[in-house]
């Protein structure tokens, strides 16, 4: 079945260098073709502006309106910036980055927790025409080094120590293997040899870069976001200001109330959800982003009430933890991300907050769907919403009619899809519009919801996770290096909160390993902790098809059945 399919011309083209790993070659010269630029502007889903201009607008029109509120959960202290403060901070940070040699097309990596400095840093990079590579603070040294190598980051801004992990130390250890990395900037009190002290350099730079005298091109690559992708192999998604704008603008409604609108998400400011809600949405409405540095539900519940938060975007597992501490207050919209939404959660939001719980679906590579005000109150149980303006969905199946028992594979194309993906480890460049008439394979399975939208029914067996995907093939390769593992498949099994957790299905080589053995092995490699399996299943052999490929669908069904029985 096809939903709203429109044929259009071929998508983005490379106008300068064709990407090949090696010196002097880049993907950051990618641009959309003029036909797409003209079409999407005419439809109103792309624009000539950019977030820096949005900031200047509110600085001039509502300089005393609150732009950003940040909570330090350990001390209870808050930091608040008006739009005047915000703009001055961005100018100061842009000057500090320029002093470090940052300019157009260069890459700045940010690996920071949800502190107030992150949004101004993002905008400062945009002001200079630099490309930002945000990295979540839960990513560990093994994956971080690969990211920094792939994007050729010249500056990396990180924390000294956060949640017991020595970020600055890990970055210092890998720095000699990253010849393009010129500066290691550290936010915190522990500043080591060769590191730039963030507080001294960024809060008191020798120069500033005014916001009024340079406007970044809205169709240039501005941010590179890493994801495991549909194949379970890590990749970077290259977005422009306009692909990001199309996603954020789709959620703006006439009900948004300007300076009174306050947006909160617990998700990382250095990944797509945080950028979408706490940077883009406030700048489009003149409202404010509200952030907390750590996920502490008992502290965040009162904080949301005290700061009069109006909109929350949150994964079901986080919402379930927040509900005992949440109060209606000023809340008018609570939206979960498009993993399965448990019925008790829908009921709790309606009962305790007096609101219908909404849901939306999207991915790092593209915006997607959202529920609307005219949807039934319990529609989050049945739908991930309708496609956003400027985008199209396609459901495909080789098995005939698409049903709940035989869902279709979900494809998307349009104004929200990234210009390209780049394999983190392989360097493989894929321009979505150059393949299959621009359709991007999401790896998700879905059916029509009966109201012009979709209901998500699961994922391709290689995709594991909830809000964030786990790179299955990468973890499998690492596990195969364990002497007690002869063969292995990483497969998702149901998380009670509506997502998925990773299970290692192992054929042992001699004495079988324990789950603790496997996790210790991955820890020793420096692998990011939330990639590690949380369950171990020992089997005599892995099921394979005629081509020798592991039948992960069979393993996943078996794990789901066992989880249900358990």
From TrEMBL:
The lineage of its organism: Bacteria, Bacillati, Actinomycetota, Actinomycetes, Pseudonocardiales. Residues 58-417 form the AMP-dependent synthetase/ligase domain. Residues 475-549 form the AMP-binding enzyme C-terminal domain. InterPro entries: AMP-bd_C (IPR025110), AMP-bd_C_sf (IPR045851), AMP-binding_CS (IPR020845), AMP-dep_synth/lig_dom (IPR000873), ANL_N_sf (IPR042099), ATP-dep_AMP-bd_enzyme (IPR050237). It comes from Amycolatopsis rhabdoformis. It comes from the Bacteria. SUPFAM superfamilies: Acetyl-CoA synthetase-like (SSF56801). This is AMP-binding protein. Pfam families: AMP-binding, AMP-binding_C.
């Amino acid at each position: 079945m096809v939903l709203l399919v429109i044929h259009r011309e071929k998508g983005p083209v490379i106008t300068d260098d064709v990407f090949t790993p090696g010196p002097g070659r880049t993907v950051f010269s990618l641009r959309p073709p003029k036909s797409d630029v003209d079409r999407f502007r005419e439809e109103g889903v792309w624009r000539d502006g950019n977030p820096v201009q949005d900031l200047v607008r509110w600085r001039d029109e509502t300089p005393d309106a609150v732009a950003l509120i940040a909570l330090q959960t350990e001390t209870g202290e808050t930091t608040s910036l008006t739009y005047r403060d915000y703009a001055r901070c961005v100018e100061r940070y842009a000057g500090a980055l320029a002093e470090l040699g940052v300019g157009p097309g260069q890459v700045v990596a940010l690996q920071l927790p949800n502190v107030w400095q992150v949004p101004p840093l993002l905008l400062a990079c945009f002001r200079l025409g630099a490309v930002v590579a945000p990295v979540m603070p839960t990513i560990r040294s093994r994956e971080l080094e690969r990211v920094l190598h792939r994007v050729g980051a010249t500056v990396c801004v990180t924390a000294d120590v956060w949640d017991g992990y020595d970020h600055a130390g890990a970055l210092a250890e890998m720095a000699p293997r990253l010849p393009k990395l010129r500066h290691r900037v550290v936010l915190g009190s522990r500043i080591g040899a060769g590191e730039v002290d963030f507080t001294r350099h960024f809060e008191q730079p020798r120069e500033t870069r005014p916001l009024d005298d340079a406007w970044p091109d809205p169709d240039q690559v501005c941010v590179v976001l890493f994801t495991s992708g549909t194949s379970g192999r890590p990749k970077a998604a290259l977005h422009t200001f306009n692909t990001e704008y199309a996603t954020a603008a789709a959620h703006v409604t006439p009900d948004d109330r300007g300076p009174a609108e306050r947006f909160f998400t617990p998700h990382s400011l250095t990944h797509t959800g945080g950028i979408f809600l706490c940077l883009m949405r406030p700048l489009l409405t003149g409202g404010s982003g509200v952030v907390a540095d750590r996920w502490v539900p008992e502290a965040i519940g009162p904080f949301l009430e005290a700061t009069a938060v109006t909109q929350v975007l949150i994964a079901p597992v986080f919402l379930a933890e927040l509900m005992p501490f949440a109060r209606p207050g000023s809340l008018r919209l609570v939206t979960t991300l498009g993993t399965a939404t448990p019925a008790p959660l829908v009921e709790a939001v309606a009962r305790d907050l007096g609101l219908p719980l909404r849901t939306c679906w999207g991915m790092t590579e593209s915006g997607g769907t959202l529920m609307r005000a005219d949807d039934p109150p319990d529609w989050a149980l049945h739908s991930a919403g309708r496609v956003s303006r400027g985008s199209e969905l396609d459901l495909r199946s080789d098995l005939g009619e698409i049903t709940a028992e035989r869902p279709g594979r979900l494809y998307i194309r349009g104004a929200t899809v990234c210009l390209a993906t780049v394999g983190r480890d392989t360097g493989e460049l894929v321009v979505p519009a150059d393949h299959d008439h621009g359709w991007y394979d999401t790896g998700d399975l879905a059916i029509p919801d009966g109201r012009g939208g979709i209901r998500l029914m699961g994922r391709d067996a290689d995709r594991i996770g909830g809000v964030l995907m786990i790179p299955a093939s990468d973890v499998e390769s690492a596990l195969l290096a364990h002497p007690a593992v002869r063969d292995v498949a990483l497969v998702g099994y149901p998380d009670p909160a509506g997502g998925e957790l990773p299970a290692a299905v192992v054929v042992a080589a001699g004495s079988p390993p324990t789950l603790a053995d496997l996790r210790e092995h991955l820890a020793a490699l420096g692998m990011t902790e939330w990639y590690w399996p949380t369950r171990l299943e020992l089997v005599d052999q892995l099921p394979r098809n005629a081509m020798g490929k592991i039948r992960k669908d069979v393993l996943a069904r078996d794990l789901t059945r066992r989880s249900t029985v358990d």
